[in-house]
Amino acid sequence: QVQLVESGGGLVQPGGSLRLSCAASTNIFSSYAMGWYRQAPGKQRELVAVITNGDSTNYADSVKGRFTISRDNAKKTGYLQMNSLRPEDTAVYYCNLHTPSNFLRTYWGQGTQVTVSS
């Protein structure tokens, strides 16, 4: 099985930055696509960003230009750099690994709270 441990969440003022980390236990981390999702109170979980095993990236329109997803395969860790944070970014952020091009194998982290407030 694969275990994902997320960290880096917290309270930040609007306009601030945070970097989320997702450490994976799997020895084949590099073969997975990695995504970040978020869920705000009363809302459905939504895709924030995805990076493939070939380092191709996609972003939700709401975060494009502000967030950057990346991965360090040697460290088996994924990242989400969040800049210019807004109150509407407040949510629990979840790391996801899935098999490329499908979700036949899917793993989730426990989530980390990000709160953007003045």
SSE layout and pairings?
Layout: E1 4-7, E2 10-12, E3 18-24, E4 33-39, E5 46-51, E6 57-59, E7 67-72, E8 77-82, E9 91-98, E10 106-108, E11 112-116
Parallel strand pairs: 2-11
Antiparallel strand pairs: 1-3, 3-8, 4-5, 4-9, 5-6, 7-8, 9-10, 9-11
Which tags fit this structure?
118 residues, mainly beta, 7-stranded mixed β-sheet, 4-stranded antiparallel β-sheet, 0% helix
Structure description:
The protein contains no helices and 11 strands. The chain has strands spanning about 5, 10, 20-25, 35-40, 45-50, 55-60, 65-70, 75-80, 90-100, 105-110, 110-115. Strands 2, 4, 5, 6, 9, 10 and 11 form a 7-stranded mixed beta sheet that branches. A 4-stranded antiparallel beta sheet has the order 1-3-8-7, with no helix packed on it. The N and C termini lie far apart (about 40 Å). The relative contact order is 0.32. The mean pLDDT is about 95.
Give a brief rundown of this model.
With 118 residues, the chain is an all-beta fold. Helices cover 0% and strands 49% of the residues.
Main structural class: mainly beta
Give the beta-strand count. Answer: 11
Radius of gyration: 13 Å
Query: Average pLDDT value?
Result: 96
Shape call: globular
Summarize the main sheet. Answer: 7 strands, mixed
**Weakly predicted, low-confidence segments:** none
Could you state the order of secondary-structure elements as H and E?
EEEEEEEEEEE
Q: What level of helicity do the residues show?
A: under 10%
Number of helices: 0
How much of the sequence is in beta strands?
Answer: over 45%
Report how far apart the termini are.
Answer: 40 Å
